[in-house]
Write a structure and sequence with these properties.
- The complex is a heterodimer of chains A (192) and B (542).
- By secondary structure, chain A is of the alpha+beta class.
- Chain A is built from 2 helices and 9 strands.
- In chain A, the strands form 2 sheets. A 5-stranded mixed beta sheet of chain A has the order 3-1-9-5-7. In chain A, strands 2-4-8-6 form a 4-stranded antiparallel beta sheet, with no helix packed on it.
- With 542 residues, chain B is mostly helical.
- Chain B has one domain: Cytochrome C Oxidase, Chain A (Up-down Bundle), CATH 1.20.210.10.
- The chains are: A alpha+beta (192), B mainly alpha (542).
């Protein structure tokens, strides 16, 4: 019987098996981490390519207004499921010259007898124009707190880029308003 | 590690220890054949359970209108059917085949990590016990589809979703351990002289599947962990209100999900690549190209995931990239189909049950591949998305693909497992009933899908009534036929014509060099493969 040879061979195998398993487990851990790394990676990709209606950062171009060109910007307001506030823009649309700094006011009203907090999430359509839409100030940058019955006017200031593709004549800025009272109590926000 | 086997002081004859007696044999076994059998039985039980859920679905869809179940329960049925078939039936069946056959094919005494092997099996009953128990909980089980898109599976999920998450974690851990075991076995325990290019293709496809599993199951674990955190710990990975994005869920899920569909088909490619040469009495045509095609499919599977998401709004360049990358997969897959057909070409073919299932596999899987190409065309996908056309497509690649591959493997290796020949007449009846039933069930779904019938809906427009009735009749036929398969297998275990060591005259491979049934311990002394030739492309290999 070649038992000894077999046993020696098995010992040699189990040593290299242990090393192999360590490498494979390392791969498992790395891939688990990669799943989470996709979260910031996705953010970066969306910002870089203006995907998903994520708007571009600060306006880098010269502040020269292109008087010859006019783009229509529409405003939409939507309440997420379960949100009871009245939430709407002062005007449904406006004509904008690329390069010009513009402002629109949104009105929010809390009809309940409880203080509530809210978060607006913006989106620009068409998606390929989102990278050319710069917000210099927006109520969506912070959370809103409204006392019972309170009404506020919330500004958004924006510049449409002069490099906006020529075939885009029409942009939509849409906000969805989420009730975040349970997640972030109004008292907590007021203290900031 | 192998010392575990040797310490089994049990009754035995000259060279081999026998199995322990009673229940503890199965609870504590580290024997690859015992564990393989348990995997196969478990997967068949799950196949019947998931199948009975499909029967509920088809019974409700027999006629338009709501007759049998409420929409809430219907949603739970479609969800559980998908989850159980993917994670409970197909994947464990292939792990079972790997456990049984890979050590026999490479001349190894057992798997590389026998105790972990036992643990990875016994996690599965726990996982599926947990998953199925949610059906009896208040608020019902998972009802958000097997793809569990957020926010359906987070904000709007039933309370039982936490149990679902834990069950997915358990299955994931089980699959990862199983895959590590297979990879370690293949890389470290091959008989002397068995180089990589001498391995049977089933071993090759499983090696690549093992790496796919190790790469993507952790990502699935990650995505359900994010769900858990969103539901219970106040994070906002998938919640727009907190700065997250539901579309992110789809990206992470399909980064796992697309390689997953190849995990379910590559081992079937390997099994069919063993069976077709055996019954054509010719060596496999293009062995080397088969290996490279498998590797190419595995690589491409990582860069096509967004073709499941053409309609969520990705930029045009993205749609083009994912469209062309997806179509590229047809090239290595076409190489495989070409090789199988060339293997059969001018062979002296016979059509025993394993061959019938394999030939049907080649034809019907190709049909599923073609409908996949149609879905890959981004502008057309806007019409097909979430319709029954998609249901028809993935059932054509999974039923006559993965499941026929498993049936073919079962019939091919049953004589080796049991020592008896199965009843060929009944097996042929099983094949033809399955073939007709499956085509009746799934072919009309192409038509109703193209006409706009949405998936995952318990009711439908009157104009789809006739095709749906045909689908349901076919599904009932396919379902009942699987009880015949159970009968054939039990009959084969209990008795039948004794099988020789190599019952198929055209079969090749080390597994046929051991007696039938395979002794409890095989290849304690490894065979020497040094003088065997490596596989070469073309028919010169003998």
């Amino acid at each position: 019987m070649s038992t000894n040879i077999v046993q020696v061979r098995r010992m040699a195998e189990s040593i290299s098996t242990a090393r192999l398993v360590r490498y494979l487990l390392l791969l498992v851990v790395l891939m688990f981490g990669f799943g989470f790394a996709l979260v910031p990676l996705y953010e970066v990709m969306c910002q870089a390519f203006g995907i998903n209606g994520k708007t571009a950062g600060a306006y880098g171009g010269a502040q020269v207004v292109d008087e010859a060109r006019s783009v229509r910007v529409q405003f939409l307001s939507t309440n997420a499921a379960g949100m009871v506030w009245r939430f709407e823009p002062m005007s449904d649309e406006m004509e904008v010259h690329p390069g010009a700094s513009m402002e629109m006011l949104f009105i929010a009203h809390n009809p309940t007898d409880q203080p509530m907090s809210a978060q607006a999430v913006p989106s620009v359509a068409p998606a390929r124009a989102a990278a050319y839409f710069h917000k210099t100030e927006c109520f969506c940058f912070t959370q809103q707190v409204l006392q019972p019955g309170e009404t506020i006017e919330m500004p958004v200031r924006f510049i449409v880029d002069r490099d906006l593709p020529k075939d885009v004549h029409h942009l939509t800025l849409a906000y969805t308003l989420f009730d975040i009272t349970a997640r972030t109590p109004p008292a907590e926000l007021a203290g900031r | 590690m192998s010392a575990v086997i040797d310490s089994h002081a049990a009754t035995g004859h000259d060279h081999h220890h026998g199995p322990a007696k009673g229940l503890s044999r199965w609870l504590l076994t580290t024997n690859h054949k015992d564990i393989g059998s348990m995997y196969l039985w478990f997967s068949f039980a799950m196949f019947l359970l998931g199948g009975s859920m499909a029967m509920v679905i088809r019974a409700e869809l027999f006629q338009p209108g709501l007759q049998i179940v409420q929409p809430e329960f219907f949603n739970q049925m479609t969800t559980m059917h998908g989850l159980i078939m993917v994670f409970g039936a197909v994947m464990p069946a292939f792990v079972g085949l790997a456990n049984w056959m890979i050590p026999l094919m490479i001349g190894a005494p057992d798997m590389a990590l026998p105790r972990m092997n036992n643990f990875s099996f016994w996690l599965l009953p726990a996982a599926f016990g947990l998953l199925v128990s949610t059906l009896f909980m208040e608020g019902g089980g998972p009802n958000f589809g097997w793809t569990f898109y957020a926010p359906l599976s987070t904000t709007y999920a039933p309370e039982s979703v936490t149990f679902f998450i834990l069950a997915v974690h358990l299955m994931g851990i089980s699959s990862i351990m199983g895959a590590i075991n297979v990879v370690a076995t293949i890389l470290n325990l091959r008989a002397p002289g068995m180089t990589l290019m001498k391995m049977p293709l089933f071993v090759w496809t499983w090696l690549i599947t093992g790496f796919l599993l190790i790469a993507v199951m952790p990502v699935l674990a990650g995505v359900v962990t994010m769900m858990l955190m969103d539901i219970h710990f106040g994070t906002s990975f998938f919640s727009a209100a907190g700065g997250g994005d539901p579309v992110l869920f789809q990206h992470v899920f399909w980064f796992f999900g697309h390689p997953e569909v190849y995990i379910m088909i590559l081992p079937a490619f390997g099994a069919v690549s063993a069976i077709i040469p055996a019954f054509s009495r010719k060596p496999l045509f293009g062995y080397t190209s088969m290996v490279y095609a498998t590797a190419a499919i595995a690589f491409l599977s990582f860069i096509v995931w967004a073709h499941h998401m053409f309609t969520v709004g990705i930029p045009l360049t993205g749609e083009l990239f994912f469209m062309y990358a997806t179509m590229l997969i047809a090239v290595p897959t076409g190489v495989k189909v070409f090789n199988w057909v060339s293997t059969m070409w001018q062979g002296s073919m016979t059509f025993e049950a394993p061959m019938l299932f394999s030939v049907a596999f080649v034809i019907l899987f190709t049909i599923g591949g073609f409908s996949g190409l149609m879905l890959a065309i981004a502008p057309a996908d806007f019409q097909y998305h979430d319709t029954y056309f998609v249901v028809a497509h993935f059932h054509y690649v999974l039923v006559p693909g993965a499941i026929f591959g498993i049936f073919a493997s079962a019939y091919y290796w049953l004589p080796k497992w049991t020592g008896h020949m199965y009843d060929e007449t009944l097996a042929k009846l099983h094949f033809w009933m399955s073939f007709v039933g499956m085509n009746l069930a799934f072919f009309p779904m192409h038509f109703v899908g193209l006409a706009g019938m949405p998936r995952r809906i318990p009711d439908y427009n009157m104009m789809f009534a006739n095709f749906n009735m045909v689908s349901s009749i076919g599904a009932f036929m396919f379902g009942v036929t699987q009880l015949l398969f159970l009968f054939i297998v039990i009959k084969c275990i209990l008795g039948g014509r004794p099988a020789s060591a190599k019952p198929w005259d055209g079969a090749e491979g080390l597994e046929w060099s051991v007696p039938s049934p395979a002794p409890y311990h095989t290849f304690s002394t490894p065979p020497d493969m040094t003088d065997e030739h490596e596989h070469r492309a073309g028919p010169s290999h003998g």
